[in-house]
Amino acid sequence: MIAGATAHLAVSVVPLAAEVLAQAPADEDVSPGLLGFLVTFGVAMAVVLLILSFNRQMRRLNANERHARYEAAERAEAAEAAQAEAAQETAADGEVPTPDAATEGDPRAGASPVDGEPRDRP
């Protein structure tokens, strides 16, 4: 009984499917419409905004890096000048200079060049 019903259903569905497929519009007659355009436009705008944001972040990162390098160079130059001055003063006094003599009064002595945190000194 079930086999006969299945066969009857298959016989009636196959011509119906062929009829529906025959009535389908041609591929060149189908377009995505307004919804497809809006979705595509939205994705394109999101990509443009992401690219602009990425470029802004990269410029900011490069500027921060240049600024940090500049400050590190200034600190190194100041430390060298202070060390040279301390060496001249101790040479004039006849004392032997110590490595920490140049940075004795400097509050940034021993600070990391990047984040200003004190380093562990030996």
Automatic annotation (TrEMBL):
Task: Spell out where the chain crosses the membrane.
Answer: 32-52
Report keywords, A-Z.
Answer: Membrane, Transmembrane, Transmembrane helix
Region described as Disordered: 72-122
Mark out the compositionally biased spans (Low complexity): 79-91
**Protein's UniProt name:** Uncharacterized protein
